[in-house]
Specification:
This protein is an alpha+beta fold. Helices cover 71% and strands 9% of the residues.
Length: 296
């Protein structure tokens, strides 16, 4: 019997015990491993359900959303396609001639304008002091497109150059506006400079007369010899200054326009294709948000 049914039963018991004894950790690990994928699959299912809840209303109304986007894109393209084109033009002013203005003090030494002085001149061009008479002149000449344009001045780094940039509905109006701003600024600067020099000449001549008259009344004398010598030196200095100022009037160059304004052959705006693309994207986003909001 031991070799028969008993051995058979023993073998079964031993097999069961070996499985229970040695395979239990593996079974426990396998059970844990089986549970972990279950958790991952559960979270993935939840994520999938959330995504489906979001995109379901969008997918349901996909043709409506796409139609709205296309309609907005076409409407945007047609709107900007028929808008008047805006062109730009630019010209440069050279302020190096302002060295003559430094010469009015008697030094006659050329100097580069400081950054603050250059910024002041840029502010003057951008102000109504220059802009108002320019636009009035353009309207009087029936240059209405140029008069409605926009002009902006900017300094070119630390150099003595100022760039005037204009925008108008057409290349020619943009050029006319830039040239008008440049000429108006040059005329104002020249007028101010010449008025300043003439005022200095008048003041210097008045000083010279005040010195020469007493000397002519006193005449010659031993006591007045020293005073006469001093007066003569002062008179010679004033006469030399008058000569320099009069020379500055005839040789004045002042602010110069580097060259006539030139227009960009390509328009700045409108850009129908870019605007249509933006309209298409906007036409997709807004209806999608509205569709999602209605489904909540």
């Amino acid at each position: 019997e031991w070799g028969g049914s008993q051995a058979h039963r023993c073998t079964r018991r031993c097999a069961a015990s070996s499985v229970g004894r040695y395979a239990l950790p593996y079974l426990r690990n396998s059970t844990t491993a089986d549970q972990r994928p279950g958790r991952i699959l559960k979270s993935m299912n939840e994520t999938t359900n959330d995504a489906a809840a979001i995109f379901a209303p969008l997918w349901k109304r996909k043709w409506l959303i796409l139609g709205v986007a296309l309609l907005v894109a076409v409407g945007t393209y047609e709107y900007y396609k028929h808008k008047p084109a805006v062109y730009s033009a630019a010209t440069q002013l050279f302020l190096g001639g302002a060295a003559e203005q430094q010469g009015t003090s008697g030094t006659g030494t050329p100097k580069t304008l400081s950054g603050r002085a250059l910024a002041d001149q840029v502010g003057l061009i951008n102000s109504s002091v220059i802009g108002k008479p320019v636009r009035e002149t353009l309207r009087a000449e029936h240059e209405l497109a140029a008069a409605r344009g926009k002009a902006t001045a900017a300094a070119s780094g630390s150099s003595d150059f100022i760039t005037i940039t204009t925008e108008a509905r057409g290349p020619r109006p943009a050029v006319n506006l830039a040239d008008a701003y440049a000429q108006a600024y040059i005329k104002r600067q020249r007028s101010d400079y010449l008025r300043n020099v003439r005022a200095q000449i008048a003041n210097t001549r008045a000083q010279l007369r005040r010195i020469e008259l007493p000397a002519a009344v006193k005449g010659k004398g031993t006591k007045n010899q020293a005073a006469s010598n001093t007066t003569t030196l002062q008179a010679a200095s004033l006469a030399s200054k008058i000569s320099q100022l009069e020379s500055a009037l005839s040789t004045f160059s002042g602010v110069q326009q580097v060259g006539p304004a030139k227009a960009n052959p390509l328009p700045l705006s409108p850009a129908p294709k870019k605007n249509a693309i933006f309209g298409f994207v906007l036409g997709l986003i807004l209806p999608a948000v509205a569709a999602y909001g209605l489904s909540r």
